[in-house]
Specification:
Layout: E1 4-9, E2 12-17, E3 24-29, E4 39-40, E5 45-50, E6 55-67, E7 70-78, E8 81-87, E9 98-99, E10 104-110, E11 114-124
Antiparallel strand pairs: 1-2, 1-6, 2-3, 3-5, 4-5, 6-7, 6-11, 7-8, 8-10, 9-10
Length: about 130
């Protein structure tokens, strides 16, 4: 499953962190072998900054899924963890998520706890 921004660098597609301008941060799970030029960051993942001109493709994957019977937006996926968001008024039903204003809940869950995923890819011009 994929969700969020991605960039293709030297023929490999990585989760990325789009920021206005450059450089772009590429991300890989720490559970993967260390990709060339990547270093461990404080969030326990492999990270590397590259110039936008070094990328061959950038895109965003918008993903929806079902978690515990509820439709959710999947904001990002890295390795076996997904960050999800849902609207639900009874925050006590999902104690593993953080409650925000107006019934918005978010948090990180195992990818294998999600089902019925649907992805839409939006190309971002370089």
């Amino acid at each position: 499953m994929r969700a969020g921004p991605y960039a293709t660098f030297q023929g490999v597609t990585y989760r990325s962190d789009f920021a206005d301008g450059t450089p772009i941060r590429l991300l890989a799970p720490l559970s993967d072998p260390q990709p060339p030029g990547f270093e461990r960051d404080k969030y326990r993942r492999w990270s590397r900054r590259v110039e936008r001109s070094e990328l061959s493709r950038t895109f965003i994957v918008k993903t929806t899924a079902v978690w515990k019977g509820q439709p959710v937006s999947v904001r990002s996926v890295l390795g076996d963890c997904a960050t999800i968001e849902l609207c639900y008024q009874d925050a006590s039903r999902f104690p593993e998520l953080t409650h925000h204003q107006h019934g918005l809940l978010d948090g990180t869950v195992p990818v294998d706890s999600l089902s019925d995923a649907s992805e839409t890819v939006v190309e971002i011009p370089l």
